[in-house]
Write a structure and sequence with these properties.
758 residues, alpha+beta, Ribosomal Protein S5, domain 2, 28% strand
Length: 758
Amino acid sequence: MEVRTFETEWGGKKLTIETGKLAQQANGSCTVRYGDTVVLVTAVIAEEAREGIDFFPLSVDYEERFYASGKIKGSRFMKREGRPNDEAIMTGRMIDRCLRPLFPDTVRHEVQVVIQVMSADLENDSDMLGLVGASCALAISDIPWDGPIGGIRIGRVGGEWVINPTFAALEKSDMDIIVAGTPEKAIMIEANCREVTEEDAYEAIMFGQKHLRPVIELIKQVQAAAGREKLPIAGLSGETDLTDDEKTERATLTEKTREFVFGRVADELYANKQMSKTERLELIDRLSEELDAQLKEKQIGKEKRKYALERYWPLVENLVSQRILEKEERVDGRSLTDIRNLSSEVSLLPRPHGSALFQRGETQIMSTVTLGPPSDIQILDTMDSDGKKRYFHHYFFPHFSVGETGRMGGGGRREIGHGGLAERALLPVLPDKEEFPYTIRVVSEVLGSNGSSSQGSICGSSLALMDAGVPIKAAVAGIAMGIATDDQGNYKILTDIRDLEDGKGGMDFKVGGTRSGINTIQLDTKTQGLTPQIVQETLTQAKDARNRILDSMDQAIAEPRAELSPYAPRIITFKIHPERIRDVIGKGGETINSIIEATGASIDIENDGSVTVASANAAALEKAIQWIKDLTREVTAGEVFKEGKVTRLMDFGAFVEVLPNQEGLVHISEMAPFHVHKVTDLVKVGDIVPVKVTEIDHMGRVNLSIKQAKQELGIPQEPPAGYDVARPPARRDDRGSRGGRSFGGRRNDRGSRNDRNH
């Protein structure tokens, strides 16, 4: 296979696509390079169709390899890459949403796209290369796909648009918008912003679409040079061997089904617009059985009836769209801009630090907040980052929320994706670590689902955070917008979509934000893309809906509570001199572990000397803080300590510990205002005595006084009962001179050693 290389200039850097060298057995493969970031993308279609499914089986896997950035996995026990991390899963889902609308939905052969990061330069994100590579691999493969498309990331730094900003530039940007599609239509949008206006978000999307052209032209060059002939869709849909009579018969069956849906089903479905989701689905299922019975009465065989019933549901969705386009009539009787009934409630649960229940129609979300000390942060160990995460949102979607049964377990790809979307919507309004040093975990439990539980989770999370007393800058709400379209380009935009409004020809355009602006956008569509006009109108209509939801939420709680839950830990942060950190840690962590064990408090120390102490018990918190401060502060002359501990006794005085690991000397003359014969007459080891710091000499030695401390504290200083305070008698002078011997000197009346040697 010939190796071919194609290049173009894109955003001031060279974009390179190479084919024919790697993964030659895949239906389509290529490598994409931008800077020193390189990805390998493959596309493969299964030889056999999957039996018993009624959907197109596509999977997109985004695989990170630690060697790409010159790293070895940090775990001591597991060095091999395992399950993709959350970011990798969400990247795979994002690329999936770009590709899926352009596949023929009648294909039942599984298609797998794998994006493998081979090199990561830690400047250029590999996700855009994965999207470009997926588009190219599918375009040059023999897999039926209506591409190519392009993908681009747009940032704004200093008021200027930036194409594919680096990681460093994104830190300074107020928006991170990914757009996929063509210069004319957007197929997928993923945006993380900091309360930007609808006008700015729209301008960023249009700027991105304009700069998709060089990428698409490059892929078309690759396709022209190395592309394979596409497999026939009919063969992959099981329709290659049909005779003309069979094709006519199938067309007749489809028409009969259509007549039944637009007649019998329409009459029943729109007769009672107050039906619940369950009642409506039960009605449609019952009518499908009625259709099957009618066909059976006409002597139509089982396989042919199966074919007709496979067209039943798509035709029901088509009915719903057509009624909206022609009459602006929705199945539940709402207008195009109406939101279902809203309700909000806070403080549902007694022990969680914050809780809320948000309900929109039948979609019901309970969100809870748990506040923890800084030590509860999540440590990130990924291919291109080693960091810490102090806020995380986890989303749970149990089967009972849609009236089904199933296995319970850890979060799947959908749950991770929805949780991440809600997490990013709240991130811009969270307080800085310096203002609010807590680790924050939000959990959203979907208790009922009928339309955009992810946006309901944004609302529930915002309410729960305020209930917990987290000082968020503003309340955040989310709304899912939909659309009804036809083949002639007609469309109607819908606010707050529900079950039957998300079929073929529709969209799920989620927008989350505050009254000031947009925080998140996530678009996936079941069309060939949205025009700029549709994007702009949707953003405007979503803003109005978002503000109405925020008004409803304000009725439950309009601002964060002034006080935290009594069950939440209290956190105090202060600073010590960095050189004293070792005094708090102790040898092998002995000192800090002693404090934790004695108080039950959580203690975190940063390299700059920042100390954070957390405990739900106020007394334990104060004890731990004082312990640390005592360990690290220096005593000063004139200070009085009421509780010094005698640690050692000497003939000339007693050593007293005034602070942990800091002691001083009380000379025997400073023990009492009267004469003390022996130190042990007044104190013993372990006694607690008041002391005053009288001096810190030039060598740093601390001199203490018990008698001065007691005098200042007003403590009586009487000698023990029966204690003889008289000084010892003076020496007698009638014993003759000792030859002028000074204290500590030698006696000189014994002659020299030399004299004694003779």
